[in-house]
Predict the structure.
Amino acid sequence: MAPQFTTPRDESNSGALNEKVYDDLLVTIEASDRILSLLVAVCDDMRMRDYVISRCEAELQSTIPCYRLVLARGEPSLRAAVAELVQSDSYLQAGGRAALMVIGAEQLHFMNLGAERSEQDVFFGYLQWTREGMREFPYPIVLWVTHQILVNLSQKAPDFWSWRRGVFRFISAKSTCQPIGGLRPPLEPIREERYRSLLSLDALSELIGQKQKRGERDAGLATFYASTGSVYAHNFRTGQSNDPKADLASAVEYLRKAVALQQELGLEMELVSSLSELANLYESQGHYEEAEPLQVQVLDLKKRLLGEDYPDIATSLNSLAELYHVQGRYEEAELLYIQALEMRVRLLGEDHPDVATSLHNLAGLYESQGRYESAEPLYIHALQLRKRLLGEYHPDVATSLNNLADFYSAQNRHAEARPFYAQAAELGKRFLGETYPELLDLANSPQKKVDE
Amino acid sequence: MSTNLLESFRQAYRNLELLPLLTQKELDSFGVNYGGDVIEELEQLVEDSPSGDSKIVFAGHRGCGKSTLLAEFSRRLEKRYFVVFFSISDLIEMSDVNHINILFAIAVRLMEEAEKRQVQIKKSTKESFYKWFATQTRVESDEVSTDTSVGFDLFKIITGKLKADATIRNEIKQEFVRKISDLIARINEIAAVVQVATSTKILVIIDDLDKLDLVVVREIYQDHIKALFQPQFRVIFTIPIAALREVSLRAVIETETNDQIVLMPIAKLFGKGESRETIPIPQFKPTATFADILGRRVPDNLIETYTTEQIILYSGGVLRELIRIANECCRICLRLIRRNPHDETVKINQDVLEEALNNLRNDFATPLGKAEYEILQITYQEFAPEDPKEQKFLDLLHGLYVLEYRNNDIWYDIHPVVVDLLRKKGLINGTSIHNT
């Protein structure tokens, strides 16, 4: 089998790095033959993970047979999974050599979704306390986790963590995670609504003129600069003008003016708004390297101005996560999405539209990673939450329906996709002509997909 | 016939309204010169705001005269500032006040005030502001128009909704809780437009935040002060005195206001310990001021001179307590007149006062338990509690059981009505203020 870590579109060096990690894993397994060795493999891209496991299986075929184990959803105990396998396999019963690949941790929910403890917490609890019981299993055991689980693993199962014999981190590059078949662009994460001035460009230019005539370089002038920038940015985003390029240039120009004056006058909260608007513009143009430091600055400023624990911080975490998501930096994106989600649940309660948005974003990320099993319940939960909180007839519900339909459709689960497309289309028609431009094409395009 | 007497007492009763003197007319009728140095202190801080956005926290006991003073203060600054003075209780149901709706209320009152004064704002701008307000409060769009009178009505509708409709308040909270910077940006934009149109600096004064429960106060000022202080114009916030006695909260407020805390003290009728003398002699000046205040509301012929003095002493130096006791006395007299319509001798005397105090004592006694009595007892004896940070003590301070006095240092004493209560329960010795 040809190595699949490197693809033509992968500009980073991740292919070579992953080859190295793969070799590390393989030699560790070989060296751990016939002894208990707890190995942790980290991979956020499920297709890559499956590829690695297959390659291991192929290469070790003649020496150390590989077994795949899936953690049970209800009782995600590593020990129980291993014990069950050993008991049911005569080869292992007879003392055969083996390497165990344990998967399924990525499917465990990190949210408790009504239960007392989340599945992940139960899993960590088992891990923490079953170490003694593992001694009877003389195999290298590779526990496959995601980056998010890894972070929690070290904290929530410190004893297990202290026994690990090695951690193998595979890097997911965007190119390796293109949706299979490449038929459609990756789903846009649901974006946070942005501030837009109430003032018209005419009114603003008049107000700025008045300010300048009086020689007032104050907070008011900064506000008008920022407002002007945000109106141009809005026009640019929604395509409401004849000259989007000029709008973009003007938006950047005025936002920069605002930033300069706000910095000069020490108007930090206003600075936050201008910087994040500017970051969003850069991001929309694919200038991620320019957007990132701005988003990071916004997050830092907000933390300082509002305190660490604040719903606005969650919004920023989410924006930064989006930025990582579109760049294919899934590990970073996942951690931030989850941080934002947890903060929202904590500060706003589980029943809040923002929680639904967070679930959606996370589902989108998992979908990009091919972690369909993880994505599906989140999509469904988000849809139910939205229906309950916003009512059946809400544009966000339509978006949810459409995303879920796309999700099924992308996996060739067309029968499941169809009713969601139909519902989304129905809703989309209702909102036609309303102020939700993103839905204007919704009523038609899904119908097309249904017909296909 | 004592029709005249009845009428006089009715008038006096009406005069003894517990509410602050907000209008010039009320002030003309009943106002006295009080708290002048506090006004000057406030004015100084407002004027000395280098970047024009200073936040001032104004504290004092309930009923010590803060609102009356703020109203007078706002009138005094009206010529130089675009003053927006309002009570939070006029806009938001008090049980539901939070930092979001305080900020939203600022936006509403700012625009309403601009409307009232017919500030010239471009029509399209005004329209889009109105539309925003209407959307946030779910006012139907056909109710919105830039017609001056309609605009004014819009704010009435909005105010009504904010006050009565918990759903709307909740929606506003949900909307902005996660993007507080948007709400602030909106407020600043409105303020900047008003500022350009009037060429005047904006000063917002929010009264009655000191009436909130301490838990709510803590949440607003401790957790959300940064957001609350973001508007780019001068704002005076009110706060209960007990909140300033919470060390951590005070530290936060000191930092965020840049130490701009103004405290309105209650009148010091006695120096520390003087009220414990065998024959206590009150300070002349504050006593005279209080007599003046009472005299403007209750004609001399309706009250014994000695009783006037007693009422003043029982007020503990808190203006509203003075009015409250006199009010209670008046009510008793009205009842006496009703029972004996021909009795021309009805007057606020020691018997009437004793009955009034008895009623007030019962009011005070209702929520007290053993622990509270112990704190009160110690505070009476030591002029300070054992633990000034203790929540129960702060609650007692908030509820006027304990009064805070200050000259160079701070000391505490017990509300004179409560002192009697302690004495009757045998918790403390000594004589009553008056000897009936």
The longest strand of chain B covers residues 81-87.
